[in-house]
Amino acid sequence: MDIAQNKRRENIAEYILYLWQLEDLLRALQFSPEAIYSQLIEPRKDIAEEQRPVFLLWYLDIAGLLRREGKEEKGHLEHTLHLIADLHDLHLRLQQLPVGAHYRATFARLEPHLPQLRRIVGNPGMSDTELCFRALYAAMLYRIRGEGDKTAVHDTIEYISPVIAELADLYRKVETGEIDLYKTE
Predict the structure, then answer these.
(1) How confident is the model at residue 150 (pLDDT cuts 50, 70, 90)?
(2) Which pLDDT value is given to residue 156?
(3) What is the three-class DSSP state of 1?
(4) What is the tally of structural domains in the chain?
(5) Count of beta carbons in the 10 Å neighbourhood of residue 26
(6) Are residues 61 and 82 both part of a single domain?
(7) Is 131 left (phi over 0), alpha (psi -120 to 50) or beta?
(8) 15, exposed or middle or buried, with CB in 10 Å at 0-12, 13-18, 19+?
(9) In which domain, by residue range, is 154 found?
(10) C-alpha atoms less than 13 angstroms from C-alpha of 26 in its C-beta half-sphere
(11) Is residue 120, in this structure, part of any structural domain at all?
(12) Does residue 122 lie in a domain region?
């Protein structure tokens, strides 16, 4: 809960990836309140005793959302998919607006790799932004498990990370009013 709130405030991309990881973790724990408590709350010494029930309820709320959305076995919460859609909308605007010049240059280095990435992921209708998130998440899982072609995982992260990092930073700046997409100088 506290980690998610901080990530949401500071870096939308890390927040989305964190929630995706949490979804998989809750599935692995079979949504069991006892397992969630013993694995995710009890080991944390930074959570005060009186706050532990609040944390458990937060995890159970996410588990409940996964169930309500029919995603007990696979898939991602609509909440994160909507955030990715918002990020993609920003991506599209940055492709056109003067404020997006640096982002366009960063994205241009990734763009030639998108068709191959799309073939690997296997969903031709997916937005470029969602494709990048799915590839980053897969690379993260491969790295955690020690599986997969290490070169491919490294290449995926090397090409995609700068784009998603810059997009997330611009998203935060737009959200906080630090930059105005439509301001002309």
Answers:
(1) low
(2) 72
(3) coil
(4) 2
(5) 22
(6) no
(7) alpha
(8) buried
(9) 78-176
(10) 27
(11) yes
(12) yes
pTM of the entire predicted model: 0.90
Report yes or no on 73 lying in a domain: no
Asked which of 3-17, 53-67, 97-111 is least confident by mean pLDDT, the reply is 3-17
Whether 181 is covered by a domain: the verdict is no
Q: What is the pLDDT of residue 5?
A: 80
Burial of 63 (0-12, 13-18, 19+ CB in 10 A): buried
In the predicted model, is pLDDT for residue 98 greater than 70? yes
Interior angle at CA 117, CA 154 and CA 155, nearest 5 = 15
Residues 87 and 60 in one domain: no
Tell whether the model's pLDDT for residue 2 goes beyond 80.
no
Cβ atoms of 36 and 44 within 8 Å: the answer is no
Please check whether residues 85 and 161 belong to one and the same domain.
yes
pLDDT score, position 60: 96
133: exposed, middle or buried (C-beta count within 10 Å: 0-12, 13-18, 19+)?
Answer: buried
Q: Is the pLDDT of residue 114 over 80?
A: yes
64 plus 119 within the same structural domain: no
Which helix (H) or strand (E) is 47 found in, with range? Answer: none
